Amino acid sequence: MTALQRRLGRPLRLALLGGGPDSWIGHLHRSAAELDGCWRLVGGVFSSDASRSREGGTALGFDADRCYGDVAELVEGERARPDPADTVAIMSPNDTHYPLAATALDAGFDVICDKPVSHDAAEARDLAERVRRHDRVFAITHGYACYPMTRYARHLVRTGVLGPLRFVQVEYLQNGMATRLEDAAPTNRLRWLLDPARSGLALVMSAIGCHAQHLACFTSGRRIDQVCADAGAIVPGRRVIDTVSALLRFEGGLRGTLTVTQAAAGTENDIRLRVHGERGMIDWSHRAASHLAVAMQGEAAKVVSRGDPDLPPEILALGRTPRGHPEGLREAFANLYAEVARERMARTLGEPAPEFPYPRIEDGVHSMAFIEACVSSNGRWVDVAP
């Protein structure tokens, strides 16, 4: 228990929107939220079908009176309680993120939301305005930015170890759409996933591309000003976009590349980031998430590991086990949940809120503007809207 939680006198209360019993992302959210004891899960809406939502919630062990049929019922029910939820976590299909987040913010909840935050940049800007108007906390679960070693990569950039930045490379490859899912037996998930109106402006960008873009921006400390992109489907006959390759121009003239696909047969969930500066480079791979390669010009390359004793204290604090013990995406999500909790607790107590670098709604606005630019590029350089 942190000192903030002792002063508050309780963990924060979290309601879930989505993430029923069969949802792997729901399990990830639930286990990550509770890992450090900052949150107590209290209930939620677990399906778009009211009966399945109530059944799914009780199957997960929640009290029946807090397993709601829809978000309006949740708002009404939680408002009537002496112990209402403080925050909602959204892990439902893409096209529901914006309306659920807008409703939650207007009802006075903080929001932790899976990506994409919205269908387009206009909706994301609307969410940002609601966050400001209601003075709420809004976090986006770009978990890759919450690993100790990606945080250390950012630290090396910010402290000038690499010198002036020159080039950024980021890629995210998956194989989940390498086969024609369109020919498979239809399921609720496939229906929304393969519907461009529901899955987003560019499916691969909504699913994984925004993770890659955010990680590049987060680590470099710069937004993307212009993009020249080729966006389309590499699987014949597919209506949704499964691949994007792009040249990037960041603020300050920094150049870069982005490659993302969900149709790379044989690959696994594989995200990689390389940042090159005047004096050296850093290289991080999700396959070795606890390590960061650092290669300075004219020096022997080295590998820095999570838990190395000479790391900055704020980086060491993000790990939970000694070196050599595996940590992964659950622990990265838990870092985000813990940072959001500490900020909310401080604000509730009227104390100065700690400055944490977890992904916020402003990052979501930039991601959605970047996706719009990729889709409209057609191989031309286009501006990314502010």
Percent helix:
25-40%
Q: How far apart, in Å, are the first and last alpha carbons?
A: 40 Å
Q: What's the CATH first level of the largest domain? A: Alpha Beta
Domain tally: 2
The CATH topology name of the largest domain reads Dihydrodipicolinate Reductase, domain 2
DSSP strand count: 14
Kindly provide the radius of gyration, computed on alpha-carbon positions and rounded to a whole number of angstroms: 21 Å
Low-confidence stretches: none
Count of DSSP H/I helices: 13
Series of H and E elements: HEHEHHEHEHEHEHHHEEEEEEEHHHE
CATH superfamily of the largest domain: Dihydrodipicolinate Reductase, domain 2
Shape: globular
CATH architecture of the largest domain: 2-Layer Sandwich
In which order are the strands of the major sheet placed? 13-12-11-10-6-9-8-7-14
Give the biggest sheet. Answer: 9 strands, mixed
Beta-strand fraction estimate: 15-25%
Mean pLDDT, rounded to whole units?
96
Structural class: alpha/beta
Explain this structure.
- The structure is a single chain.
- By secondary structure, the chain is an alpha/beta fold.
- The protein has 2 domains: 3-144 and 339-360, Rossmann fold (3-Layer(aba) Sandwich), CATH 3.40.50; 146-321 and 364-383, Dihydrodipicolinate Reductase, domain 2 (2-Layer Sandwich), CATH 3.30.360.10.
- The chain is built from 13 helices and 14 strands.
- β10 and β11 (280-285) form a beta hairpin.
- α6 runs antiparallel to α13 (361-377) and α10 packs across α13 (361-377).
- The relative contact order is 0.16.
- The mean pLDDT is 96.
